[in-house]
Design a protein that fits this description.
Strand 2 and strand 3 form a beta hairpin. The protein is globular. By secondary structure, it is mainly β. The protein has 1 helix and 9 strands. It has one domain (24-132): Immunoglobulin-like (Sandwich), CATH 2.60.40. The termini are far apart.
Length: 134
């Protein structure tokens, strides 16, 4: 009986995260896309107002996930147009393998471009919890 309960608990724990909805202020990007995101600033917190695949000159954050010709990988580019450094969280997802992994990120310096190498197996990136440095 204990084994059956343990197996049910384990199976439920594996299926629950897959059914959860996206958190608010989450941007999903797929390989080959470029997104232009605009935020509402409240102190150090940011609220996502809109994002578009069409170029928006007033966008405060430009996110690209493009293939790298030299490596079997994709390059994530984030261009920070905020007056302060930007912090965020990232989750890599493989939709084929039904896996997702949180990944550590480095803050994006004001007015600069941050580059991160992502494996080809990452079918989707979820960027969330955007905050400005104090």
């Amino acid at each position: 009986m204990k084994r059956l309960l343990f197996a049910l608990f384990f199976a439920a724990a594996l299926t629950l995260p897959a059914q959860a909805k996206e958190k608010a202020n989450t941007v999903l990007i797929h390989p080959g896309e470029t997104l232009y995101a605009s935020f509402e600033v409240k102190g150090t917190k940011l609220k996502l107002v809109s994002f578009s695949k069409v170029k928006v000159d007033s966008a405060q954050l430009v996110i690209s996930l493009l293939p790298d010709e030299k490596k079997p990988a994709n390059t994530l580019k984030l261009e920070n147009k905020f007056p302060r450094d930007l912090h965020y969280h990232m989750e890599m997802r493989s939709l084929v393998r039904k896996q997702h992994f949180a990944r550590e990120t480095i803050p994006v310096v004001t007015g600069k471009l941050a580059l991160e190498i992502m494996p080809k197996e990452a079918d989707e990136l979820a960027l969330s919890d955007f905050k400005l440095e104090k």
